[in-house]
C-alpha cells in the first residue's frame, strides 16, 4: 500500500508506531519496516524520535535494521546539519556496534563539511567518549574529531553546549585510556594514535608525553599500529620542521566516486608518500601544491574525459611492475634535462615512455651533490595539472652525499591520456651548509617527446 497510496497509509502512522512496542517479534519487525517506509521530510523529526526510543529497547536482532534505517532516513531527510549530527551520535551511543560499516566515514564527512559545528561536535563527542569507550564506531569518530579539532575543545565555552572545562591532560589521558582498553579494536587504536599525533601540533604544552606513547607502539604486535608509530616517531626525529604542516586539518573530501575523486586521491597519495607519513598536507607551509599549477592559469577547469576509459588506462598504470629501476637509461630520442642547480646541488630529469603504454611517462629525478658538504633531509615533491595523474614513488634516500657521491633518485609516473603539453611543479626542501632551503619552481621546457 505504501508504494501505491502513500498518503493513505500515513493516516495510520500512529497505529503503526504503536505496533513497534508489540511483544511479538514478527509483528514489531513488520512495524519497523513500515515505519521506516513512512518517514519523509515533513515527519522526519517525530518519526526519528519514535524509532530512537524503539532502538533503545528493541531486541538485539532488530537493532541493526533499526539503526541502519534511522541513519538512512537522517541522511535523506535531515532538516539541518546539527540535527543530522545529533541523530547519528545518538544512534552510535545507543547501538554503535550494530551500525553500518560506513557510519564512521559518513559522520566524519558530515562534521568536516560543517565548519560552523566543529566546536559543537568535538565537545559532544568528547563528552560521549568520556562516558563510554565500548561503542567502537563512536570511539573512532570521537578520536578523529578530537585529533582534528582538539584546539577548539580547549577554547573556552561553546554557546550551543553546556559549559565544559577541559584540560590538555584530560584529553591525553582519555586517548591513552582508549589505546590501553581491551575493548578497543586495532582500527580504533589507530584512530587514537593518530589523534595523539595531531594533538602534538594543536596543544600548547610539552609533547614529551605524546612522544613517549607513540614510541611504545613502535614495537606493537599489530603491524598497522607498529607502522604508524614508527612513521610518527620518524616524523618527530627527522622531519620535526614539517610536522605542523603535515598534520594540519584534513581537507574536505567530496563524496560520489567520480573521476575527480579518483584524481584527488591519487594526488593526496603522492604527497603522503613524499612526506613518509600517511596524512595529507594542506595549505599554509606546504602551499597547497595541488593547486599551485591551477593558480597560475586562472580558475581551475574540470579535467577532460579520459580515453578510451579511465578504468582501462588505470589498469595499465597499476599493472606496471613496482620494481622498475629508479635510474633507467632514457631512450636517445628523449634527452635528459637539468632543471635545478644551486651551490653544487643539481637536479636532472630523465625520461622513459614504455612502448606498450604510450599515455604513460616515467620520469627519474636524480639529485647530485658536487659541493663539500652533504645535503640532508632532502625531500622532493611534485604536482601536475588536474588533467594528468601523478604517482610519486619514495626516494632512494634523504641524504645527497658530497663530492659527487651516490645520487638520490626518485621515480614519477605521469599518466597523460590526452597527450597534452606537460607542465611540472617541483618543491624541494633540504638542509645544506647548516641552512634550511626551500625551492619551488615550474618546469615548462620538457622535451616534446615526453607528451607527443
TrEMBL record:
Matches recorded under InterPro entries: Adaptor_Complx_Large_Subunit, ARM-like, ARM-type_fold, Clathrin/coatomer_adapt-like_N, Clathrin_a/b/g-adaptin_app_Ig, Clathrin_app_Ig-like_sf, GAE_dom
Domain GAE: residue ranges: 332-447
Keywords for this protein: Golgi apparatus, Membrane, Protein transport, Transport
GO terms under cellular component: Golgi apparatus; membrane coat
Pfam families: Adaptin_N, Alpha_adaptinC2
Localization per record: Endomembrane system; Golgi apparatus
Membrane topology reported for the UniProt record: Peripheral membrane protein
GO annotation (BP), single: intracellular protein transport
PANTHER family associated with the record: ADAPTIN, ALPHA/GAMMA/EPSILON
Family designation: Belongs to the adaptor complexes large subunit family.
Protein's recorded name: AP-1 complex subunit gamma-like 2 isoform X4
Taxonomic source organism: Vulpes vulpes (Red fox)
